[in-house]
Design goal:
The chain has helices at 27-35, 59-72, 85-96, 119-126, 136-144, 150-157, 174-179, 214-220, 236-239, 241-252, and strands spanning 3-7, 11-16, 38-44, 78-83, 101-107, 160-164, 167-170, 198-203, 224-229. The protein is an alpha/beta fold. Pfam families: Abhydrolase_1.
């Protein structure tokens, strides 16, 4: 069963992180959704955070995990939000289990195929040799040789934890990511449609959703609405959480 944090009372609202992320990335926003009247479930997807590791890693497998989570927690009518990789999971879940989903929110990702672009990040993570028992500062120094952006490094290093005294490790399953990296960019299969209300939010400084993608998105999500957060990049919810919260709650309460 997937690891989750459940808070609040009201309509069940599932939130799913992106690639190399975890539920902790959404802790602050989750608290705001609780105050807005939702029962919030922030998940760690398989091979991420505190959830289980598996050699099988695909969108189909992740959707099955979420479906089993909903069954185990008796969630029959939910709203769902996914960012990046989590957005792809949310799209596939909504199109294959529409009877469970009322409203869908997708943050800065589309249903199209994305070519691999995480090579530098993975090279930095793979350069860390935990057998020599590096400190947190040592790990950051190694990763910084490959990942120059401070915010991205901090996001990645949130995955560090003490496996045992004196021994750091990453929470995510790096070996499986190395072996199945093409899985992350996979497109939503043709012919899958979600007929209910859907909101796509993109960062104005991000190139993940282009104006030219709108028509293709509407083929899968005919009721899609589009919002843009100005000057925000791919981590739009972290860069402008106030506007992100306002846009999403307004949509959910319509």
């Amino acid at each position: 069963m997937l690891y989750s944090k459940i808070e609040g009372e009201g309509k069940p609202f599932i939130i799913m992180h992106g690639f190399l992320g975890m539920s902790d990335n959404w802790k602050t926003l989750a608290g705001q959704y609780v105050e807005a009247g939702f029962q919030v479930h922030i998940l760690d997807l398989r091979n991420h955070g505190r959830s289980f590791h598996s050699d099988e890693w695909s969108y189909e497998a992740m959707v099955q995990d979420v479906f089993e989570y909903c069954q185990a927690n008796q969630l029959n009518k939910i709203d769902i939000l996914g960012h990046s990789m989590g957005g792809k999971v949310a799209m596939l879940f909504a199109t294959t289990h529409p009877e469970i989903v009322d409203k869908l929110i997708v943050a800065d990702i589309g249903p199209k195929f994305y070519k691999q672009h995480h090579q530098d990040i993975l090279a930095g993570l793979n350069a860390v040799d935990f057998s020599v028992k590096p400190s947190r500062n040592d790990v950051e120094a190694i990763v910084s040789q490959y990942v120059s952006d401070f915010g991205t490094r901090q996001f990645l290093l949130k995955n560090l934890y003490w496996q045992e005294p004196g021994q750091l490790a990453f929470r995510f399953n790096l070996e499986v990511f190395n072996n199945n990296l093409d899985a992350i960019g996979k497109a939503l299969p043709d012919g899958l449609v979600f007929e209910k209300e859907t909101l796509f939010i993109r960062g104005g400084a991000s190139g993940y959703i282009l104006d030219s993608d709108f028509d293709a998105i509407r083929q899968h999500f005919p009721k899609a609405k589009f919002e843009t957060i100005p000057n925000a990049g791919h981590w739009l919810h972290a860069e402008n959480p106030k506007m992100f919260f306002e846009l999403t709650t307004e949509f959910l309460k319509e």
